[in-house]
Design a protein that fits this description.
Elements: H1 2-9, H2 14-27, H3 29-36, E1 41-43, H4 49-58, E2 61-69, E3 74-77, H5 89-94, E4 103-108, H6 116-129, E5 137-141, H7 148-152, E6 156-160, H8 170-183, E7 187-191, H9 195-201, E8 206-211, H10 221-238, E9 243-248
Parallel strand pairs: 1-9, 2-4, 4-5, 5-6, 6-7, 7-8, 8-9
Antiparallel strand pairs: 2-3
């Protein structure tokens, strides 16, 4: 009884002890999520070999941007309007030897009717040359119908939903549903800000999303509140069985572009 009475009188001492692990979890939540959801947490915008060499050790997959060059029949790893560094997708992928348990998300920036068939053939030849299972690669585009050529080659595909889709009218939402059903894509992809909207209107299809604004370092009550909100939101998204991949911002020592 005496011990209980002492603890009760000094219960304020427990607050700092509880605060330490909470602050650690909030400040390093991406590391925690990588441990809790290893297959779902991928790195966003890995557009250089230097960054790739760091990211492929920490993450189970990466997202990169590609532009197909019709004249040279090659993929350039780049996010326009940034200046190209002349890095081909073949060279990028060749820098890693084992893809048995690793995912690649290609944000295809310029897929169109003129290059859809030829670019799908090129990507398939790259995977054959490097012994990469096409099922380990997701091809994403805002043109869902044209992703059919990649589906035929065994790649997974994702329809990049229009910006601000949560503000669309019911008629426009139904048009999007029709596009998705017609194109038979594996996933839909959109910013995490659209998560609740997607849960309501696109319940049957799996989701890819991204969380680019990393939680702020805790410096005051405001940043503590924001970090707590982000943590519970991010955990909810990652714990959703309909969500397959969540991209997080990753700053490498070299090669950020």
């Amino acid at each position: 009884m005496m011990m209980f009475s002492i603890l009760k009188r000094n219960k304020l001492w427990c607050i700092p002890l509880l605060a330490i692990p909470i602050l650690f979890i909030l400040n390093y939540q991406i590391t925690i999520f990588r441990y809790l959801f290893p297959s779902k947490v991928w790195s966003h915008r890995v557009n250089s070999i230097e960054k790739y060499q760091e990211a492929n050790v920490l993450f189970s997959g990466v997202e990169l941007d590609v532009v197909y060059d019709h004249f040279n029949d090659s993929f350039d790893v780049n996010h326009p309007p940034a200046k190209s560094i002349g890095l081909s997708l073949f060279k990028f992928l060749k820098s890693k030897s084992d893809y048995s348990d690793f995912g690649i998300w290609l944000d295809f920036k310029n897929l169109d009717e003129l290059n859809c068939e030829k670019s799908a053939i090129k990507l398939y030849r790259i995977t054959k040359a490097l012994n990469i299972n096409p099922q380990n690669i997701i091809v994403e585009s805002n043109n869902s119908i044209l992703l059919g050529d990649f589906l035929k080659k065994g790649f997974r595909t994702s329809y990049y939903l229009p910006f601000n889709i949560s503000g669309f009218s019911e008629d426009h939402i139904n048009i999007q549903k029709l596009l998705i059903n017609t194109s038979n894509v594996d996933y839909i992809s959109s910013d995490v800000g659209d998560y609740n909207f997607l849960k309501k209107h696109f319940k049957e299809i799996k989701v890819l999303t991204w969380i680019i604004n990393n939680p702020p370092k805790i410096k005051n009550l405001y940043t503590l509140k924001r970090s707590l909100i982000n943590f519970f939101r991010n955990f909810k998204v990652l714990n959703d069985e309909k969500v397959n991949v969540v991209l997080f911002k990753f700053s490498a020592i070299k090669g950020n572009r």
